[in-house]
Amino acid sequence: MSYQAPLQDMTFVLTELCGLAALSELPGLEDATPETVEAILEEAGKFAGQVLAPLNRSGDEAGLGFDNGRVTVPEGWQEAYDQIVEMGWNSPAASPEHGGMGLPFAVNAAIQEMFNGANTAFQLCPLLTQGAIEAIAHYASADLQESYLPKLVTGEWTGTMNLTEPQAGSDLAAIRSKAVPEGDHYRVSGQKIFITYGEHEMTENIIHLVLARLPDAPAGVKGISLFVVPKFMVNADGSLGARNDVRCVSIEHKLGIHASPTCTLSFGDDGGAIGYLVGEPNQGLTYMFAMMNSARLGVGLQGIGIAEHAGQHAAAYAAERKQGGRPGSAGSVAIVEHPDVKRMLGLIKARTQAARVLAYRAAAASDIASRSTDADIAAKAQRRLDLLIPVVKGWSTEMGNVSASLGVQVHGGMGYIEETGAAQHFRDARITTIYEGTTGIQALDLIGRKISRDKGYAMAELLADMDDTAARLDAASGDGVNWAGYAKSLTEATAALRAATNWIVDQAASHSELPQASACAMLDLAGVCLGTWAMADSVLAASARIAAGDSAAFLHSKLRIAEFYRTQIAAQAPALLALVTLGADAVMALDAADLGVSA
């Protein structure tokens, strides 16, 4: 199960499409020059391919051990994690003030894609820790930051996110966990489920971020507070004290990511776990969204990473497997020569490349939003980030599932056999559309908080950028590129996305359920259309480099993959627009009996 980080494409996207040079001019990012970033990515790629990828299959087969609250990880996990800490890969974007590299979020996105692509089950641990770092760094007191951030940033300690409860699921308003004040701390009690890396022994401490209710909290989501609850208490001098009242009572037996412990944690069985309030009371959900947005971007990168790995795996098999003939060739040929296999591999590669651009652009928007000294520019970047997050999370993970499925299909019957490894990508990808908010939740977020709430303002800004790219395509010239075709495809995609946005805004005021019925179609349309924009910008950048004398085969391949996307994927935009605007009535017309649910 080899993996090779797509460094050429990652570097191309960062430099040509995400403005890496401009990012390195932001305050605090001056050292992130394109040359430095290229060297960092090369080292990260080596670690992904040489250390993490070889553990992917063995970890899946070995799974986890669980005995009386103790979780043991597969062989090689501890050594790989120790290397993560030693090399500083745990949280590359964290502030140097706390021991991080201080890299742009956009560069960190590339690193996370590599590590997720090589071994998703392993990388889930740093992913959750990075989210905990975000929440504590933005909202916790100076004392809590001083106590917890340095070792979270280095990876000496890991972090978790504790939202879900058995009776609540995605409905956080139904959370019952309690936090009772006691001096300078609180006693936390309750049970949390689906806690990724909630228990393990790779580090000496685990820092849980827990949502719970204060005794006088109002009902619903407005009454949720956020608490830091360490596995081991931290003394004033930074040393570890007694074990806190939190324990793992079970781990889940899952379809995929077998080597990632998904835990049920019980807080307060012996009087209450000691916790510390983050920020203000009853603001926990607001604070947790910082962690959730980081995690949602990270999960989107999981979808992209798995798609990349599944595509590499399938392409390698297609190059080796000989079956059937083709006109002009004697005997059997490698199946990669067959048109339908080319189609499947092309779908994987084209959608993966488009999703990569969107994810990295979201991360770059985060850099600008958090560091620009121009308030208007920062605010626009924040709107762009907020708008892109549900698309990156929802569309990229659905794409990852389809790509992993196509990878199995390319293998044919052998793909259904575990020994080939193709099935693991399929199994691991399945969770990505579920955790950190299902695709349906991402779609509702897109049409509600991100489109209807501002009446399409942030989307209008993005559509204006798409119009600018179309104008550049109209003015472009040069051999070997169907400029008119690209301009037409992008113009149609922009028009479809604009029409769908207007429909969502118009309907939201008087028929709120209709947009909800079209939400997932809208998410798919947004992904396809924004992917068209991403690939069009890729064509402009690649063609400019070719015209300047760069003859790299990679650039010519970019043009062919973009043309494939234009004809095979962008062409879906009109049909998806019809699904958004015309399909909702059919959804709403269904009753329970139609769906096989008896009264």
Automatic annotation (TrEMBL):
Keyword annotations from UniProtKB, A to Z: FAD, Flavoprotein, Oxidoreductase
Protein name: Acyl-CoA dehydrogenase
Segments forming domain Acyl-CoA oxidase/dehydrogenase middle: 161-268
Residue ranges annotated for the Acetyl-CoA dehydrogenase-like C-terminal domain, each copy included: 463-591
Residues annotated as domain Acyl-CoA dehydrogenase/oxidase C-terminal: 282-445
Domain Acyl-CoA dehydrogenase/oxidase N-terminal: 35-156
Organism: Rhodobacter flavimaris
Cofactor (UniProt): FAD
Entries under Gene3D superfamilies matching the protein: Acyl-CoA dehydrogenase/oxidase, N-terminal domain (1.10.540.10), Butyryl-CoA Dehydrogenase, subunit A, domain 2 (2.40.110.10), Butyryl-CoA Dehydrogenase, subunit A, domain 3 (1.20.140.10)
Protein family (similarity comment): Belongs to the acyl-CoA dehydrogenase family.
Signal sequence region: none
UniProt cross-references to Pfam families, sorted A to Z: Acyl-CoA_dh_1, Acyl-CoA_dh_C, Acyl-CoA_dh_M, Acyl-CoA_dh_N
